[in-house]
């Protein structure tokens, strides 16, 4: 059993949050050495379990959740690390499907902070510049400590951004990886072309690891080539995920027809039933195999989710197989898929009146979300109203241009994020797009009070989904870890 190799202070949850917030001044630092040195200082807690890692612009959180659920169904003691949270930071770390307790979150943070202080003290004594330890550095190190102390078998690690410099890539224990897809996001850090962003995410493909390439990596060919070249460099044979019918990947792929690659193993999925209303089941068949050898068929995989989750569920099935090295138990898989929660993803937080939230926050994820909306309700006039808030550093014009014609009425607001776009500016953009908002609100709480009793869809950023969920579905229960 893992033990922290030095004394650490006893933090309260509030103290842990204060230490975490103090790191925001460092922003995003593309550096792995700081996390690697902090983990080494802690005796490498990541050496006490194994991990799978998932990257991608969109779909990686859902794929991570389904992968964790499937591995739990296979009898593994599983941890899950995702970002960002919807309501409370403890949601980022789960053990056996439940967020960790505030007490254990604070303990992990105390270990991470102390290891950083020790590393930097040694660097200063040696005349070296101390590391600027970021929020995500601390959270990732804290999570790996919490998971090691909880005695997990495997952790599912979602990349926060990119892959090459993502803090999760400092873990030594990654056995299998997946990339769900590529879109234009975080361009200031990752690059301003699909190919450049693909290169950053492809860096998680390393010798000795197995790899699944999701449907969003198949087109355009120039993007797929980035991944295939990286696989060749690392001597990794990837499994390519494909829909039997391209319509089953609507919103998940860039324009173009995927190439066949008869020399590479494939996994296929086919949607056999789509939900007719929110809460109805998506049903799909998946065929895959380990290393391209024996084909494993899973029929009637069902979940109360929209059609776009078919690609994520299928990617998770293939990734879980790769990690385990054998076929899945079909009965366990069916139970795991049906019960897996996807907070903030086409998430009905209130049934009466219906309030649907979605964390779509860039044009690609908005397109995917709207494909699901159209599949359930093709008539714009009969859809709920839209409540929208976005972050200023996103492609706001692209988001607004897609959302404006899809809802009968639009209301705009701002979230509490310091990156939030002002509601007046957002209102002007909707007006230019041909859908002038019915009202402008200064906060999500004000908007929800004014729209009480009105069926609505809330989207535009992850913080939008989170703040609505926090009002309408308050409270996050800590788990055993």
Explain the overall architecture:
The chain has 481 residues and is an alpha/beta fold. Helix content is 36%, strand content 18%. The protein has 15 helices and 17 strands. It has an eleven-stranded mixed sheet, with helices on both faces. A six-stranded mixed sheet has the order 12-13-17-14-15-16, with helices on both faces. A hairpin with a 7-residue loop joins strand 10 and strand 11. Helix 1 packs across helix 4, helix 3 packs across helix 9 and helix 7 runs parallel beside helix 8. The longest helix has 24 residues. The protein is globular. The two termini are 14 Å apart.
Short summary:
This protein is of the alpha/beta class and 481 residues long. It has 15 helices and 17 strands.
Provide tags for this entry.
single chain, 481 residues, alpha/beta, eleven-stranded mixed beta sheet, six-stranded mixed beta sheet, 17 strands, globular, disordered C terminus
Task: Provide the fold topology.
Blueprint: H1 13-21, H2 33-41, E1 50-55, H3 60-73, E2 78-81, E3 93-95, E4 98-99, H4 102-125, H5 135-149, E5 154-158, E6 174-181, H6 187-190, H7 194-202, E7 210-216, H8 221-234, E8 239-243, E9 266-273, E10 282-288, E11 296-303, H9 309-324, H10 330-339, E12 347-351, E13 354-357, H11 363-376, E14 385-388, H12 396-403, E15 410-412, H13 423-432, E16 439-440, H14 444-450, E17 456-459, H15 462-472
Parallel strand pairs: 1-5, 1-6, 2-5, 6-7, 7-8, 8-9, 13-17, 14-15, 14-17, 15-16
Antiparallel strand pairs: 2-3, 3-4, 9-10, 10-11, 12-13
């Amino acid at each position: 059993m893992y033990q922290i190799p030095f004394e650490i202070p006893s933090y309260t949850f509030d103290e842990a949050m204060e230490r975490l917030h103090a790191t925001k001044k460092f922003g995003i630092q593309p550096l792995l050495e700081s996390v690697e040195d902090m983990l080494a200082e802690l005796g490498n807690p990541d050496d006490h379990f194994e991990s799978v890692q998932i990257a991608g612009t969109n779909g990686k959180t859902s794929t991570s959740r389904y992968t964790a659920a499937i591995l739990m169904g296979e009898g593994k003691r599983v941890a899950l690390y995702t970002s960002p949270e919807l309501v409370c930071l403890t949601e980022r770390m789960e053990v056996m499907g439940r967020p960790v307790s505030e007490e254990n979150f604070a303990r992990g943070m105390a270990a991470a902070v102390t290891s950083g202080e020790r590393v930097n003290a040694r660097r200063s004594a040696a005349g070296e510049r101390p590391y600027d330890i970021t929020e995500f550095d601390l959270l990732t190190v804290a999570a790996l400590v919490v998971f090691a102390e909880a005695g997990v078998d495997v952790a599912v690690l979602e990349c926060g951004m990119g892959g090459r410099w993502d803090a999760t890539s400092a873990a030594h224990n990654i056995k299998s990886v997946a990339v769900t897809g590529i879109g234009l996001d975080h361009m200031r850090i990752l690059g301003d072309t699909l190919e450049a962003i693909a290169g950053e995410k492809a860096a998680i493909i390393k010798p000795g690891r197995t790899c699944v390439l999701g449907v969003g990596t198949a087109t355009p060919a120039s993007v797929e080539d980035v991944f295939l070249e990286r696989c060749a460099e690392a001597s990794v044979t990837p499994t390519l995920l494909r829909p039997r019918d391209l319509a089953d990947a609507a919103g998940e792929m860039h324009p173009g027809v995927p190439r066949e690659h008869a020399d590479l193993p494939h996994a296929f999925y086919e949607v056999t039933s789509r939900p007719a209303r929110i809460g109805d089941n998506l049903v799909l068949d998946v065929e895959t195999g380990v290393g391209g050898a024996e084909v494993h068929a899973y029929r009637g995989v069902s979940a109360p989710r929209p059609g776009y989750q078919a690609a994520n569920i299928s990617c998770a099935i293939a990734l879980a197989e790769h990690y385990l090295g054998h076929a899945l138990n079909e009965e366990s898989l069916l139970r795991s898929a049906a019960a897996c929660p996807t907070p903030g993803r086409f998430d009905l937080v209130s049934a009466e009146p219906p309030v649907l939230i979605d964390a779509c926050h860039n044009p690609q994820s908005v397109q995917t979300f709207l494909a699901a909306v159209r599949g359930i309700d093709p008539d714009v006039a009969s859809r709920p109203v839209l409540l929208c808030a976005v972050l200023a550093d996103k492609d706001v014009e692209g988001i607004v241009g897609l959302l404006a014609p899809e809802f009968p009425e639009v209301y705009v607001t701002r979230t509490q994020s310091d990156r939030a776009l002002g509601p007046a500016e957002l209102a002007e953009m909707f007006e230019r797009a041909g859908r002038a908002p019915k009202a402008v609100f200064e906060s999500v709480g004000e908007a929800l009070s004014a729209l009480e009793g009105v069926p609505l869809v809330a989207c535009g950023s992850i913080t939008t989904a989170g703040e609505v969920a926090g009002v309408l579905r308050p409270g996050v229960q800590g788990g055993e870890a």
